[in-house]
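#struct-pred
JK: can someone run the complex with 4'-deoxy-4'-aminopyridoxal-5'-phosphate? inputs below
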Amino acid sequence: MTHWDEDKRARPLVGQYIETLKPYVPGKPIEELRRERGIQGEILKLASNENPLGPSPLALEAARAALLEGHLYPDGAAFVLRNRLSEYLGVDMARIVSGNGSNELLELIVRTFATSADHAIVSEHSFIVYRIILKSMNVPFTVVPAAADMGHDLVAMARAARSNTRLVFVANPNNPTGTYNGRAELEAMLSILAERPDPPLVVMDEAYFEFADAEDYPDSSRYQGLYPRIVALRTFSKCYGMASFRVGYAVATEEVAGYLHRVRAPFNTNRIGQLAAAAAVDDEDFLRRTLELNRVERARVSAALSDMGLEVVPTQANFVLCRTPLLASDLYDKLLDRGIIVRPLDGYALDHHVRISFGTPPQNNRLIEALREVLSP
Ligand code: PMP
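RT: done, structure tokens with the ligand placed:
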């Protein structure tokens, strides 16, 4: 105990890669805005791509029942959930891994398949969490410039692969741009990678899968026959309205899933989340309502923003990216004063862009009105 007086800090214990790590900045919570600005009326949060209809009612019912067994550990293998997903997706249960949100699966994949001697590939303007996880594990990575539509340039990403590239991250649809890559682009990327002596694992992050309705949108859970080193990630956070339950899943080959099962924590998904998510899979009515609302409001809000002179990026997700004449941080601040939380993208090096999630029709009307006010000269 002799040295404490000289240096009590923990700094010497962390690597430079942890020292320089910047934490993820989530959308501002409603309670925080109320505390900070003393706003009395209803606060509208359109900052985290949540479901404006709330959680699936069937999920809620199952969650209430599961609470009574809260004293028991969950089933570590998440049998009920994975079994239900297996029927729903038509894939063997051994190919499915559930996670504490798809975020945990991203982390598990990096831990399982990459070390600091390896290399990974991400796209410019893609989900920032990939870089945070890679940095936190000291895995070097290349950021490939985005395509003209601000989305991923899959062929350029494939060409950036090196002999030690283990992972390629593709968000489809992408957050924060809402852009997507079609089947032809995905297949072009996979055929370039398949030529390599040791092809990397392609991580298809499909958190917004259900919202995508483009005719050529690919379902990457069907590509393992063509390219075995591909994994599809999905989540209950968005279309099932279950962001707080923290449940996501991966679909991969049985071999890849087996490695992830070896590495994951024994009880990585909780009982309430598992059983609520299994029930949500049966809530076809809720899913239909969610997707219909999003389809209509996506077109309407995108058109209204364009009419206001904002540059809108065409979106396949439940949010839209737009370029504003104001600094994103100023626009954000003015909307906060009006009780509306959007997502400024200065953290993504997009100083004039904000990302806005779609709400219910009255919520979107309130947003459009506030934006008109804020943007009027
Ligand atoms: N991937 C993408 C592209 C996302 O936007 C999000 C949520 N913001 C996630 C993964 C993580 O979602 P969750 O952990 O809630 O499943």
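RT: quick notes.
The chain has 13 helices and 13 strands.
The mean pLDDT is 95.
JK: thanks, will look after standup
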